[in-house]
Structure formats: C-alpha cells, structure tokens
Design goal:
The structure holds two protein chains of two kinds. Chain A has helices at residues 4-24, 45-48, 53-56, 89-101, 119-122, 146-153, 171-184, 213-230, 242-247, 251-271, 276-279, 293-313, 343-357, 377-393, 407-430, 433-438, 441-458, 486-500, 503-519, 524-533, 538-549, and strands at residues 31-32, 38-39, 79-80, 83-84, 111-116, 161-166, 193-196, 234-235, 237-240, 283-289, 327-331, 362-364. By secondary structure, chain A is of the alpha/beta class. Chain A has a single domain, classed as TIM Barrel. By secondary structure, chain B is α/β, with parallel strands linked by helices. The chains are: A alpha/beta, B alpha/beta. Chain A binds chain B through residues 119-120, 122-123, 125, 130-131, 133-135, 138-139, 206-208, 243, 246-248, 334, 337-339, 371-374, 447, 450-451, 454, 458, 466-467, 474, 476, 479, and chain B through 15-19, 21-22, 25-26, 29, 42, 44-45, 66-69, 72-73, 76, 96, 98-100, 115-117, 119-121.
Chain lengths: 557, 134
C-alpha cells in the first residue's frame, strides 16, 4: 500500500522508537485485544504495507469495508431503534409514543419501533399457561394473540413505520399477527417495512432453543420464501451475533459464528430453490458492541468485508444489494454494571460513539438501569439523547468510516478477518454451522471464553469500574416495575377472547396449519396467517410447530 | 446414595424461558472447582425445583433470575417446599435482583441473595461456611 521508500523509512523510525522505549520502559507488558490478538504500543505504515488498498476501498463499493452506502450519515442518520416492551400492549404503546415524542426516528424521518416480547411469548407460551406465571409483561410486552397486536398498533400509520419485531422462535406467529393487524388497518402486506428476527438457530448461545437447528432452518426458509414472494420491503432475517457475544464469545468468535450462521441459512435457502440475489438483500445483522472500542469497530468493518466476499465467492451473488451487511448495533448489556449504575451512562455514550464511527445502520443504546430492570421513562429517553448527542454534536458523522487508514485499525481489521476465517475454516471442516452446534463444539468455545473473561475480572486482571475497583456502599436506586395486575388483566383478556371467537373456525384453521407443518409444505406461513385471523392464540400455533418441527423429530430432521 | 464423605451437592437452576445463564454457569463452575457437586438444569414451574431438589438429594438450591419474576416465583418455591419436605433445603438467589428486593426474598426464607456483580469467591465462601450436608 506504500512505496518501498516509505516502508523502509517507517521501519527505521520504528527502530529508533524501539531503542528509546526499550531503554526507558523495559517492564511494559504487551497488550492484547479481548480476542487475544496482539496490540503493539504504536503502529507505522510498515504494519499495513502488506494490505491491498482495495481491501479497504471506498464507502459504497465492494468489499464494503467502509460502509455499504457511498454517503451515509452525511445524507441520512442511522435509525434510532431503542428496544421497548413491557406490560400490556397499551403500556408498551405508551412507551412507544414517548420515544417517538423524544425524537426516535428511522430513515427519512419515518417512525421506527423495536418491539420486544416478554419471556413466555418468546417461548411460544400464552399468558394463561402456568409456565408464564410471574413473567407476564415483566421483561417485555405480553403477547398472546392477534388482539394484542391490534391494540398495540391502533391508530398507527403502518405504511410509514418500520417495525422491528423481536422474538426469536415465535416470529412464525408474530409476523402473521402483524400482517393481519396491518391489513385490518388498510395497509397491505407488500407495503410493510420492518424486521422479523427469524432466529431459531440461536440455541447454541441461548440455553432455551425451541427447535433443533435442522428443523429451525426449515422454518427460516419458510418465512424467507413467503416474504420474498409477498413482502418485498420486509427484512426477513436477522443474523444475531449479539447473543453469542453476551454469552461470552469474544469478537473474533462472534464474527466467525455469525458468518457460519449466515452461510447455513443462505445454503438452506439455495437448496430449497430460492435465488440468492432475491433473498439476500433482505437479510441483516445484529451486532454487540462492547467497551473494547477499536476491536469492536474493527470487527464491524471486517464483518462487512467478509460478508460481501462470502456472498460473492461462495454463493455467486451478483445483485449489489445482496452484498450489503446492513446492521443494527445493540450496545453490550454485559458491559454494564448493577454497581453504581449511573456509570453506565458514561459507558453508553462511549458505545454510541463507537457504533457511529463503525457506520452502523441502526442503533440501540442500553439504558443505564438495565442492570437492575427494564428502563424507566427517564433512562429510556436518556438513551435516545445519548444517540442524538453523538449525532448532532460530535461531527463524527461528517466523514464516512472516519477511522479508515489508521495503521492500527486497518491492521486490526485485517487480523480479525484472518482469525475469524480460521475459525470459519474449522467449522467448514466439521461440516458447517449446524454440525458445529450439534457436536456442542461451538457451545464449548463460548463456555470457555466466558469463564476466562469472568476469571480475569475475579482476579483483577481486567478492571470493571465499581465491580472490582472503586467499589462504594450504595443506597438502592428506584427501579421500574410493571403494574402488579398486568398478568391478571392479560389472562382475563385472553379468556374473554377464547370465549368469543368462532371455535369451529379456529379448529379448522389450526388443523390446516398442522397438516401443512407435518409435510413442511410451502404454504405454512399463509396457513398461519389464516389461523391468526380466527384469533387462535400464539401458543395454539406454536404448540403445533413445536410438535411438528421440534425435538420429537430430531432423528428425522 | 450419599455417604458421609460425599461433597456438598447443589442444584443450580433458572427459569426455562429465561435465556440468560452466564452468571449461573460461572458460579456453578466455581463450585465444581471447589469440590462441590452441581446439578445444573432449568425449570418451568416452581414445583419442578422442589421435585428436582428432592430427587437429586441436594444440600442447597441456587436460583438465578434475570426475568424479574423472583418476587413471585421464590415464595411459591418456598411454599411448595414446606408442603413436600420435612425441613427446608436452603436457597440462594442470584442474578438481576434490585437491592430493595433482598429483604422480601429473605423474609420468604431465602438464606442469602447475591445480586449481579457479586464476587464468586464470596458466594463459594458463603456456601462453605453456612451450608451443611443434610
């Protein structure tokens, strides 16, 4: 990348520097990134002389290291997508309206929402099931049927919204419910914008998988096939590396795992006869951004580069939009501490700045009190203000990929790509992502890495402010609580609904869902949409999918 | 069958639909490292905790929560335990527990609460010093 003369001079300069340093600071220990990559105390041109300039390139051109658009924040800020969801749908809606009033905006000033369901709903369990007791609406919005969705979107202009629907294994009911609620409001499905998670492969890093990976892939293909045909502006699939990272994976592992997850998904779609150029433009990523500032930024740059190469080299994609690794950065919850929670405001600001400098398309900054519970109104608005301060006051948005060309960052981006590719190769040798998960190999790596990181904090080798240094006695801070009668109200609502609906119609439509699911027939999602219209509940559909695609069929799938 | 020399035996558990177990796994591993035995399994209903604890003949139950359901679930576990056992098996609670909830949990009969950020060494030491083989 530099002339021989420059490299020679740079080496000489570094030699002089080293002589000085060795004389004066002999005892300084070499540093490492979180992934264990070496960090030099200073970088010079010779460190990146071997990198082909075209690997770095220019924003908006292959291999997209520097961003997927030629102009990004100079033209259009990132989407502010603060996650929200608690209590009943009307409670969540109140918070959505508050965030909207606070300036939460998507591309071109459109409304954006980032809805998260409560734990039972994410597992396909209705609020009236005994397993949901104590959990209803506590850590996300209670959701059991189309009725809940109707209440949530009441009065919203859904053709002007971008609605991200966060639930992993139950999106096969949640998306149909959203479609029906939108159609009832006069917005056809082909006008809907937003995102399904389509996450059944997450089981390797979250301990509660609903579906085994092979049949999970079948469901993913079902949703992708349906949306590609009927919902051209809907983002079908979210490759989430956030979960692996928060479970303990380091940035290099996070990158390798999510690339293999993407490869497995795309391969399953291609095997099912789908066209990579048609499906890939509606895929996206959800990335964790932790306090390891440069390594996390380098990871995101490497991700964009690696993904576009995979689409080109492995899958022969030709549609430029198929190469785009569009991403949502969710700042690391694990970076936050319950001790001295106000310190998390400082962490959130650093993380938001890093996300902007990495060129994310969408951002969620965790609220400072999330280590204690879900955010209060005040802390929720503060996350939005954090984003707005970075956007409007720092000028980091004036230049695309502003850290490009930094000797350190380019070297790190290159090293991360190489290290992640080594892991990708190892997984290829095993047979791919699904095999690596089925063998437990991937889970083992995460467990070991998580243990190692926790041990570093326990031994004081890594400082976590307020946890293993600068501890103080504290008074409890107020935390947000959902209304104590939430569960009762949700259950009453569902019971009433079940009494009022046409039972015969519900049974007929559910039978159709089962018949198609049994054969993994192509019309599964349309059948669920028709069932959803009859106000069958989420669990009624999910129980069928669990029986037909679940662990019972492990040997055959 | 346990013998007199048998190490302390602990049930470490969390709610099945809670996807977070990093903290619980770490504590479990440190307990293993210090010579204790750990049964690590999730639960869907409070009764399952008691059932598993009896079946596995444990000396201690460790409950990990991120869900915010601790104030509902823990008292139910204690109530079912009172119905089904002669003497309560000691219970520790950890995870995302707001400090103001600690006294309610203790009132419900929890031996100690170790919220997020607690030192794992403190937890293991506490178990060594306060939990006896049954």
């Amino acid at each position: 990348m530099f002339s021989e003369e420059t490299v020679k001079k740079s080496k000489e300069l570094k030699q002089e520097w080293e002589t000085k340093v060795t004389r004066k600071y002999r005892e300084i220990k070499p540093a490492q990134t979180l992934s264990g990559l070496p960090i030099n105390p200073v970088y010079t041109p010779d460190d990146i002389a071997h990198i082909d300039f075209q690997e770095i390139g220019i924003p908006g051109a292959y291999p997209y290291t520097r961003g997927i658009y030629p102009l990004h924040y100079q033209y259009q800020p990132w989407m502010m997508q603060q996650i929200h969801g608690y209590g009943l749908p009307e409670d969540t809606r109140q918070r959505m309206d508050l965030l909207k009033k606070g300036g939460m905006e998507g591309y071109f000033g459109n409304l954006v929402y980032n809805l998260v369901l409560d734990h039972p709903s994410q597992c396909g369990i209705d609020c009236d099931d005994p397993r949901a007791h104590g959990l209803v609406g506590v850590c996300g919005m209670s959701f059991s049927s189309l009725r809940d969705m109707e209440i949530l979107v009441e009065g919203l202009d859904l053709d002007k919204c971008n609605m991200s629907l966060i639930t992993g294994d139950t999106c096969y009911y949640l998306l149909p419910a959203f479609i029906v609620a939108a159609e009832e409001r006069g917005t056809p499905r082909d006008k809907l914008r937003g995102n399904s998670m389509n996450w059944p492969l997450k089981g390797f890093c979250m301990p509660n998988p609903v579906f085994p990976p092979r049949s999970g892939l079948k469901l993913m293909v079902q949703l992708i096939r349906f949306c590609t045909k009927e919902m051209p502006t809907w983002n079908t699939t979210n490759f989430i590396s956030y979960l692996a990272r928060e479970a303990g994976a380091n940035p290099v592992q996070e990158l390798a795992f999510i690339m293999q997850w993407a490869i497995a998904t795309i391969q399953a779609c291609v095997d099912a006869g789908l066209d990579v150029d048609a499906i890939a433009p509606r895929f996206g990523f959800q990335i964790s951004l932790g306090m390891h500032f440069f390594e996390d930024i380098a990871k995101i740059r490497a991700l964009r580069r690696m993904y576009s190469k995979i689409l080109k080299d492995r899958f022969g994609a030709t549609n430029p939009k198929a190469f785009y690794a569009r991403m949502h950065v969710h700042t690391s919850g694990g970076a936050y501490t319950a001790q001295q929670p106000m310190n998390n405001i400082a962490r959130g600001a650093i993380l938001a700045l890093a996300a902007a400098m990495a060129g994310t398309n969408s951002m969620n900054v965790c609220a400072y009190d999330e280590a204690l519970g879900i955010p209060t109104e005040e802390s929720h608005l503060l996350t939005l203000r954090t984003q707005q301060i970075v956007l409007h006051e720092t000028d980091v948005t004036c230049v695309g990929d502003p850290l490009a060309g930094s000797y350190y960052l380019e070297d790190l981006t290159d090293k991360i790509e190489k290290a992640a590719n080594e892991l990708i190769d190892r997984m290829d040798e095993m047979g791919g992502f699904v095999e690596a998960v089925e063998k437990g190999w991937l889970q083992g790596l995460i467990a070991e890495e998580s243990y190692r990181a926790n041990e570093e904090i326990r031994k004081g080798e890594r400082i976590h402010v307020g946890v293993n240094r600068y501890q103080v006695e504290e008074e409890p801070k107020p935390v947000f609580r959902v209304e104590s009668d939430t569960e009762k109200k949700a259950v009453e609502r569902l019971k009433k609904l079940k009494k009022e609906r046409d039972r015969e119609e519900v049974r007929k439509k559910l039978d159709q869902v089962r018949a198609i699911a049994r054969e993994d027939g192509e019309d599964l999602i349309p059948a669920i949409i028709e069932a959803t219209r009859t106000y069958c509940s989420q669990q009624e559909v999910m129980d069928i999918l669990k029986e037909e695609y679940g662990w019972r069929h492990m040997k055959n799938c | 069958m346990k013998t007199a020399e048998h190490p302390l035996r602990i049930l470490m558990t969390r709610m099945d639909c809670d996807g977070h177990d990093r903290g619980a796994r770490y504590v479990a591993r440190k307990m293993l490292d210090s010579g204790m035995e750990v049964v690590f399994t999730p639960f869907s209903l409070p009764a399952e905790v008691v059932h598993t604890a009896i079946q596995e003949d444990v000396d201690l139950i460790g409950l990990s929560f991120l869900t915010g359901a601790h104030l509902v679930i823990v008292p139910e576990i204690m109530r079912i335990m009172d119905e089904q056992t002669k003497a309560r098996i000691p219970v520790l609670v950890g995870g995302i527990i707001p400090p103001q909830d600690i006294s309610s949990l203790k009132q419900a009969g929890v031996l100690a609460v170790f919220p997020s950020g607690s030192s794992v060494d403190d937890i293991v030491r506490f178990v060594r010093e306060n939990v006896r083989k049954r």
